[in-house]
Amino acid sequence: MSGAPHSKTDLVSLDWRGPVAVVTLTGSTSRNSLDRVTKNALLETLKQASETVACRAIVLMGGGDTFSVGGDEADVLSLEIFQILTVGRRPVVAVVSGLAAAAGMSLAVACDYVVATEATVFDCALGPGGQLPQGAVYWTLGRRIGAGRARHALLTGRHFTGGEALAIGLANELADPSELLDKAVAAAMRYAQMPPLALAWLKAAMATGSDTLDQAIETETNVQPLLRFSEDHNEAVAAFLQKRAPNFVGR
């Protein structure tokens, strides 16, 4: 994308497919492990992508044949990363090839859409050293596959193959390894065509404001007037009346 920032380190890279930022963990020799240096690089890259005005969605993938084997400890950096994924302004599509374990599993589950392969393995084992799983996966996993199934998976350290993950909603789509990125970008482009301001509010509402019916109604009551007076709302109405595709600006 012209004018958009690109970056590459030994650990994380940022590239663009139109309005879609492709963030890649590039530490394949360490199976994309999430040590403190890698987490810092990932956090800064995700911030850079999400704060780019022209960005409409993010694809997160692991380079090589492993998504990520996770890290050695939970810390503030980890929490900031998962907050960007779960309540950040941009929808995030995970490309999960090979193993997603520990915090790597949490990264995938925190994303809005997951593309995997038949050979992908999602590992629900406890964190290193017998700690709690990182990234609040005990919260995000239940919202993705249901509380009962998540409870059993985490308490028993269950592994899911790609096919099993698709069947229970842990993965949204399966693809051949050679088509993974293209499928993920296609999913991200569907998000990119939606009004970004409304998507941002919707992500935040689903993550933080819909635990009860009263909370959901209160959130909707507070947010709808803000969206009704937005430029994106006016553009949506104009595009409908003029029978053309809308050009949303995120304001």
UniProtKB/TrEMBL annotation:
This is Enoyl-CoA hydratase/isomerase family protein. Gene3D superfamilies: 3.30.300.220, 3.90.226.20, Lyase 2-enoyl-coa Hydratase, Chain A, domain 2. Coiled coil: none annotated. Transmembrane segments: none annotated. Belongs to the enoyl-CoA hydratase/isomerase family. InterPro entries: ClpP/crotonase-like_dom_sf, Enoyl-CoA_hyd/isom_CS, Enoyl-CoA_hydra/iso, Enoyl-CoA_hydra_C. CDD domains: crotonase-like. GO terms for molecular function: catalytic activity.
